[in-house]
Design a protein that fits this description.
Length: 669
């Protein structure tokens, strides 16, 4: 029986459908052991697409226009066994110099924050990539002068994938895949969207962190008599700016793809019970600093080591607070004792001579870099203030901790620039080693919390200054960058932190100021949302993630440099639920439910360990596309991971009332 894959192109134009002459079609045919030949196709009066010579395939085109929607369907049938690659080019009529480009979760504007070793305009002004790199299999071009945009969205993905023998060059696939490709191209100074099937990447393929390899073009086999499929939506519209464009495209993609929740196996309490095993097994008490060993660990054995890390990626103090709260609620005296010993040890041994938190210490080798970051310092204060507020509500006051926090926040004031920003990295002498302001929103959270705890207006003033900087330099410019500490590029966490910063400020302000923060929160949220997958990428048999039935929808890509997915969420799902009510946008709460159900899929429990060595040590570097951190590749994890932050992130997601409870009031109106 013939196996059929429907190939169609659905064109949805908000203004005028593209004319037929704006499209070019090509097919490349390869015979094993020989270079492929590429043929340009032209349309005949009967709807066929023909080449200048007779080809061993029949290609027919149907076209139907209804209102502003033009539906194009192409069916390719093999008259003899062939290995093929199909491409369409849509010329947009925009000057390439006027355009900014968008491939969700991978490409923003021109990726100029990224280095030349990663996909960016520094290397080329034309890029096409395999669809599983993208949170939505879509490419778009936005004309900054006119506000016009076009997007192309893949519509037919049957969830098939196969293993390949090579990572670059012309590659015949070992079986069937449903992955195509999409991107943009500079054609003699004008922009075009390109897309095709099966996947092809050019001018480079990104295989590892800061490692570009030569281009790849894949070919899929069609047996004699077989028919095949491709289907996309092409849409034209207008937006006020790039930020409006991203928001418009996210709403459109959500409505078309309609992502649904995955089957949830655990309640919040059940999930916390499993994750709490991390607190039990990772606790280390043989040094002056007590800590949870949660970074630089092997996935296969999760053995404890000497690395103690305050903020990202270890989140020791936040996990200590989580363990304390959970232990007291569930009469777990072991967890309570460990958590209190961690806080006590950091109070006595966890600060530098200048009053900064000791961010990262290799206790085994007695090594400690004199380098600090506003992000990790902020995450440490965030955890301490959660702890102090919890303790105070229990009638337990910690004056010594309060003084340490005040001193550290005075250090923050010394570091804050006149424009409200914070330097990314510095040393114990307050010497700036990285002046980039992309991590600034991480400081907004503890400053706002400090105002709520201490009632000192200076902290609120400093938090407001960060909001001015965030609005001017990040949100209004749609430029979210360098929050991830191990990369200098466009990343998810900068937009997520910016959105979260405005959420926190909404708790301590009212009236027009509060409404302004809500609007900024929403604007940044769309960029954060753009990193989260709305679809399920396919995996091949033998790739563990596929074999266990993993669904990628609801998981977020990390950054342009780090092309993997993870569970970095913290309060963001709660923020989406809040924004849904504040802004009357039900899409946000719907997608929040997808995130919350999906992110618990890989919970390591006995009998279902998902290649993790210990129960509750949630995986981190989930490699979902042709990229790896150095080990294992698509369908697996890197061999080294940091469950400290994954446990903390999921715990925060599973505690949706935590921020509201901290500020001890409902949202102000």
């Amino acid at each position: 029986m013939k196996k059929k894959i429907l190939i169609a192109i659905m064109i949805i134009c908000a203004i005028t459908p593209l004319a037929a002459q704006d499209a070019e079609y090509k097919i490349s045919l390869k015979s094993p052991g020989n270079l492929a030949e590429t043929f340009s196709l032209y349309e005949t009066t009967d709807g066929s697409l023909k080449a200048s010579k007779d080809l061993p395939v029949d290609i027919r085109r149907k076209n139907a226009i209804e209102s502003t929607i033009s539906t194009e369907e192409i069916t390719i049938t093999a008259r003899e066994t062939v290995y093929f690659s199909f491409e369409e080019i849509l010329k947009l009529g925009f000057s390439h110099n006027d355009c900014q480009f968008y491939m969700p979760g991978f490409w923003y504007r021109r990726n100029l924050r990224s280095p030349k070793e990663a996909p960016s305009f520094h290397t080329s002004d034309s890029w096409q990539v395999r669809e599983d790199r993208l949170s939505v299999p879509l490419a778009g071009a936005f004309n900054g002068k006119t506000g016009e945009f076009y997007t192309v969205l893949r519509m037919d993905n049957e969830g098939e994938e196969c293993l390949t023998t090579h990572k670059d060059g012309e590659v015949i696939l070992s079986g069937r895949t449903s992955l195509g490709y999409t991107g943009f191209r500079n054609i003699n100074g004008t922009s075009a969207l390109v897309f095709g099937f099966p996947y092809s990447e050019a001018p480079k393929t990104y295989i590892r962190k800061l490692t570009l390899s030569p281009a790849i073009q894949t070919f899929m086999k069609l047996d004699k008599g077989e028919s095949i499929t491709l289907k996309w939506d092409l849409r034209k519209g207008k937006a006020e700016d790039f930020s409006g464009f991203v928001a418009n495209v996210w709403n459109y993609s959500f409505d078309i793809l309609n992502p649904q929740k995955t089957e949830s196996k655990y309640t919040a309490e059940q999930a916390k019970e499993i994750l709490s095993n991390f607190f039990k097994e990772s606790y280390v008490d043989k040094y002056d600093l007590k800590y949870y060993s949660g970074v630089h660990m092997r996935t296969d054995d999760c053995a404890n080591n000497g690395s103690a890390e305050i903020g990202f990626v270890g989140r020791i103090l936040l996990n200590a607070f989580n363990a304390l709260e959970y232990g007291e609620a569930n009469n777990r005296t072991d967890l309570i004792a460990d958590a209190r010993s961690i806080f006590d040890s950091y109070l006595n041994h966890g600060f530098t001579s200048a009053g900064f938190l000791r961010e990262f210490v290799d206790l085994k080798n007695n090594e400690e870099p004199d380098l600090y970051s506003i992000r990790r310092q902020s995450e440490g204060v965030f955890a301490i203030l959660n702890y102090l507020d919890y303790e105070r509500k229990k009638g337990r006051i910690h004056k010594d901790w309060e003084e340490k926090v005040k001193h550290l926040l005075n250090n923050f004031a010394k570091l804050q620039n006149a424009d409200g920003s914070f330097p990314r990295k510095f040393n114990n002498k307050f010497e700036i080693t990285d002046s980039s302001g992309g991590s600034t929103p991480s400081a907004t959270l503890p400053l706002t919390m400090a105002y709520g705890y201490f009632k000192d207006k200076h902290y609120l003033d400093n938090a407001r200054k960060t909001a001015v900087y965030l609005e001017k330099e990040l949100i209004s410019k749609s430029d979210y960058f360098s929050s991830t500490l191990d990369a200098n590029c466009e990343d998810k966490e900068a937009s997520l932190y910016a959105s979260t910063a405005m959420y926190y400020l909404s708790f301590v302000t009212k009236g027009k100021e509060r409404e302004h923060y809500i609007n900024l929160c929403k604007k940044a949220a769309y960029f954060s949302l753009s990193w989260y997958y709305m679809w399920d990428v396919p995996f091949a048999q033998g790739q563990m993630l596929g074999d266990v039935g993993f669904k990628s929808r609801g998981w977020g890509n990390v950054s342009v440099e780090n092309n993997h997915i993870d569970v970095f969420i913290f309060e963001f799902a709660t923020i989406l639920d809040w924004l849904a009510k504040e802004c009357n946008e039900p899409r946000f709460s719907s997608f929040s439910s997808v995130i919350k159900s999906s992110m618990l899929q890989l919970m390591p429990v006995k009998g279902h360990m998902f290649d993790i060595g210990k129960v509750g040590y949630y995986p981190e570097v989930v490699q979902h596309t042709n990229w790896d951190y150095g080990k294992n590749g698509k369908g697996f994890y890197n061999d080294i991971f940091a469950p400290g932050w994954t446990v903390a992130s999921l715990w925060q997601m599973l505690s949706p009332n935590r921020v509201e409870n901290y500020f001890n009031k409902k949202q102000r109106k």
